[in-house]
Amino acid sequence: MPILETITILDSADIVRVRQKVRSQTVALGFGLVDQTKIVTAASEIARNTLDYGGGGSVTLEVLESAHRVGLRLTFTDQGAGIANIELALQNGYTTGSGLGLGLGGAKRLMHEFEITSEVGKGTCVTTVRWRQ
Amino acid sequence: MERIPILQMGQFLLVTIQVDMHDRLALALQDDLTDRIVKTSASGVLIDISSLEIVDSFIGRVLGNIATVSQLLGTETVIVGMQPAIAITLVELGLSLSGVRTAANIDAGMRLLQISLGAPFHGGLDANP
Amino acid sequence: MSLSSTSKIADLLEKNETELLRNWLTELEASGLRRDDLMRSTELNQQCHEFLRMFRSAAQHENFSDVQAPEWGSVRQLLTDISRDRAQQGFTSSEVATFIFSFKKPLFDQLKRELAQQNDLLVESIWTVTDVLDQLGLWTTEVFQQAREKVILRQQQELLELSTPVVKLWEGILALPMIGTLDSARTQVVMETLLQQIVETGSQVVIIDITGVPTVDTLVAQYLLKTVEAARLMGTDCIISGIRPQIAQTIVHLGLDLSGVITKATLADAFAIALKKRQLTIVSKASQSV
Q1: For all residues of chain B together, what is the average pLDDT?
Q2: What CATH number does domain B6-116 carry, 3.90.1170.50, 3.10.20.30, 1.20.210.10, 3.30.750.24?
Q3: How far off is chain C from B33, nearest CA to CA, in Å?
Q4: Cβ contact (<8 Å) for A12 and B24?
Q5: pLDDT tens, C159-207?
Q6: Cα Rg for chain C, rounded, in angstroms?
Q7: How far is B91 from chain A, CA to nearest CA, in Å?
Q8: Residue C99 sits in which domain range?
Q9: What share of chain A is helix, strand, coil (3-state, %, to 5)?
């Protein structure tokens, strides 16, 4: 599958950059406005997580294409502290920081596929897909 | 550092957000607006987000905070012009901004503020002096 | 051996085209596959003739093992057209496939006559012909299926558009009368259409009327609540009307919280509230003149 680009996430201006890049890719892939907004918002949430809790990292944008559908896959990786209890991290309102705790759980609801792998002390990888409808 | 401009219109403050805000800019707006409310003793704040293409939980939280803080300072805040795609996304995200007042556009927001301040209602058919 | 069987078939098609066509048509008629109610017999003759002609010319390449090969392109194209037409004319997929399968008998008969003295070659040839005709028959089924799926998809979309009329009741007041069973895909379209209409019309009040919705389950109720919430974020009030007693009971039973939503029994009640919110009143002419 074609990798479009990889964006590093090191400060809060990079989150804006991630949003803009994800937006232009969703437009290019022909996603509807509501779908675009959902993907961009989810990307923003996860990117902030990568920055705040992962100490920075990167996101890779990929196009998924099969016979009858097209999707965008975002893969966020960081080498931060990792998440000890993923289930808890996905719960609404749970946060170890100062946020609302809606980030990861909310992002999961906005996407079609969502997967977290994490190792304490090593880092976290979030892979998420939304298909064009 | 760039700032979001805050305009004064009579007893109201008007903020039109036109750029994709990064987190520090959103926090700066929250601080600036709080300062201006105190300095001007404005009785209402209108935040126009009709040109915003995305509101994530961070920006949503900042908007919610502005509303709560302004309320504590005796000022009503109305968020106006939210796009449908953003509204759907926020609801899906689980962020309903329940304490925040909303209106379709600046006009409607202004009317809402005037009514809640008990000020004369202009533009209606039954405006009482 | 194999080479001679394929060249034999090509040769036989070349020489006996007229006879094969006649026998095939007889076969089609005998097996009751002529559907004069769905298509004219001249059209069928035409299609058989066309198929035979293209089949013959593809057979000259003596490749009977793979109908996806380029030399079979025009045969596939013809069958694609025929399948699509028949899908629309109302044939079943087996009727369409049998159109091809019914060509086996005339062809086998012909082979039997030609190769009566060469048993091995006959068996070999029949196998080759069976293989290629089966592949072509399956091809028609595949195309037929795709054509039907397209029809279904189009109808679904038409139904979606049909079933989500957003109507303007008054300046600043919209109504969405929902009819039929709601599933998540439909509700999403309804929700997006409604919110878009709110922006376009600058409406302050929206009435969602669910009189025509037979049942409300948890999912549908949640969608309704989400719509109400999204509308509120845009500065518009929502009223839900037409909640029938059994639906009200379901909502209670499901433990759903509709406390933040204005609900009314009828569309008329909801409209009255909407007018009030817009600071409008309706007065009767009679009482005005008094």
Answers
A1: 88
A2: 3.30.750.24
A3: 21
A4: yes
A5: 766 667 889 999 999 999 988 777 777 777 888 889 999 999 889 999 9
A6: 32
A7: 10
A8: 2-155
A9: 35, 30, 30
